[in-house]
Write a structure and sequence with these properties.
- The protein is built from eight helices and five strands.
- It is elongated and about 200 Å long.
- About 3% of the residues have low confidence.
- Pfam families: RmuC.
Length: 321
């Protein structure tokens, strides 16, 4: 009985120790769980903060892109109004001519000196060209026309079908031939202008279409002395003309220098002749001086001889009476 009670006491003591160990383990587990929960809360908070910052940055980028899109929309609307204004300008013959003349003035004024061109120059036949480039002979002054029949080209671009395109093409080529004929008759004057004139197209699109789709028409115009140029090709032509004007100016300066050298040579020869005459006068003067010196020496010798004579003073006084 006593042994049984002893074993039960030991079991109770062992059970108490186990319960204490279990309680301590539960406390440690609770602390670990709390620490992990706090770490997870801190990590979740940092992630939420980062996500909020990214959301704010994305919202700012979206707002910036919306601002850019709005500015682009405004630019497109302004460009549309400008295109409409340009279409209105190109639809008016006078306004279109003024636009071509403005482009022509900008190009010519930028590449040529003021003495190398004249605006609205009147030729001897009474016609007036938009610009006359004053090149020396050869080739001579070149007239430039900036008016171009654009209605046919616009009709060609807006043709809805093949039949309308064929009709617009015929009108386009006929207008160009007529304009080329007018330039050839008005601006090509033998002895006054060069054998060729320039027809300036203020649109690169029209120039490219004309050369690509109608090369025979361009060649025909060249045979009649009319060369069709656009803004880019006119720039190259003006650069060549600038070189010709520079060479002509250098030749004028060389002729002027040669004239001055010839005049200097004449003045030098005239100076040599005058120096020779002065040298002759100086030689004559030296001879005259030597003759005067000889006469003076003779006078001095005679006066000394007279002093050497012993003549009484009475005789001298009688001679004086």
């Amino acid at each position: 009985m006593l042994a049984l009670r002893g074993r039960r006491g030991e079991d109770l003591a062992r059970l108490g120790a186990m319960m204490e160990a279990l309680a301590a383990a539960q406390d440690r587990l609770a602390r670990l769980s709390e620490e992990r929960m706090r770490e997870q809360e801190r990590a979740l908070g940092s992630r939420l903060d980062a996500a909020a910052e990214r959301s704010q940055a994305s919202a700012a980028a979206i707002q910036q892109r919306l601002s850019v899109i709005d500015a682009a929309r405004q630019n497109i609307e302004a460009l549309g109004s400008q295109v409409g204004s340009l279409a209105a300008v190109l639809g008016n013959k006078q306004a279109r001519g003024a636009l071509g003349e403005v482009q022509l003035r900008d190009l010519v004024s930028d590449r040529l000196p003021p003495s190398g061109f004249a605006w609205q120059h009147t030729l001897s036949n009474g016609t007036r060209c938009d610009c006359l480039i004053r090149l020396p002979f050869p080739p001579g002054p070149i007239a430039v026309d900036s008016k171009f029949p654009l209605e046919a080209w616009a009709a060609l671009q807006d043709a809805p079908d093949a039949a309308a395109r064929v009709a617009a093409t015929r009108r386009f080529t006929a207008d160009i031939r007529k304009h080329v004929a007018d330039i050839s008759q008005k601006y090509l004057i033998p002895g006054e202008t060069a054998e060729g004139a320039l027809m300036f197209l203020p649109s690169e699109a029209v120039h490219a279409t004309l050369h690509a789709a109608h090369p025979d028409l361009v060649a025909e115009a060249a045979r009649r002395g009319v060369h069709i140029v656009g803004p880019s090709s006119l720039w190259a032509v003006l650069n060549t003309m600038r070189g010709l004007l520079r060479d002509a100016r250098l030749q004028d300066e060389a002729r002027r220098i040669r004239h001055e050298v010839e005049a200097l040579a004449e003045d030098t020869a005239r100076l040599e002749r005058r120096i020779g005459a002065l040298r002759g006068h100086f030689a004559n003067m030296q001879q005259d001086v030597r003759d005067i010196e000889i006469t003076a020496e003779k006078i001095i010798r005679r006066s000394e001889a007279i002093r050497a004579l012993d003549i009484p003073e009475v005789t001298v006084a009688r001679a004086a009476e």
